[in-house]
Write a structure and sequence with these properties.
This protein is 27% helix and 20% strand. By secondary structure, the protein is of the alpha/beta class.
């Protein structure tokens, strides 16, 4: 098990890349886990990632993977990313039921950039996601039933609180 308290944060930022393929992240294979160090992989501009690159990435030494601009991803690649053992941020703005089911594979922390969420996806994530953190902080609107399902989340931390004022009024 990894240490709870880390002395250093080691961030590997791929800020110049808009897509990631195997050749783009080949050096990840050579990275070694550092003792007492939180390892973060950031790729803030990546909009496309290959299945093979995703496999390399999740098997790297990272505790956190942040792909905040990855708005669309194939179910196959999403399945690979969802198997990551650490915190995962994906920029998905919309979610299908199939993708919600795939994301249940992640057991750590999940952050999505969803603008809206369907009742069925909220039901899947709210009642079945077993990770300790679920963040959907960019939601602009939510159906009251979807809100009810998300509030059934049994993990440690649920963030759906950064609604715009009009979204809050829709709940009332």
């Amino acid at each position: 098990m990894r240490p709870i308290h880390n002395n250093k944060i080691n961030t590997h930022c791929f800020s110049l890349y808009s897509k990631l393929d195997v050749k783009d992240i080949k050096e990840i294979r050579q990275l070694k886990r550092l003792d007492r160090c939180l390892m973060i992989f950031e790729a803030p501009r990546v909009t496309k990632i290959s299945t093979q690159a995703a496999k390399i990435l999740i098997n790297g030494p990272f505790d956190i993977i942040e792909l905040k601009s990855l708005k669309k991803v194939s179910n196959k690649t999403l399945s690979i990313l969802a198997n990551f053992k650490g915190a995962l941020t994906i920029g998905l703005e919309a979610l299908t039921e199939a993708q919600a089911l795939i994301l249940l594979q992640n057991k750590a922390a999940l952050e999505l950039n969803l603008k809206t969420i369907t009742i069925s996806c909220a039901k899947i994530l709210g009642s079945s996601y077993e990770g300790n953190i679920l963040e959907l902080k960019l939601l602009k609107s939510i159906h009251p039933k979807a809100f009810e399902y998300l509030n059934k989340f049994k993990g440690d931390y649920l963030n759906i609180s950064e609604f715009r004022q009009k979204a809050i009024h829709k709940l009332n």
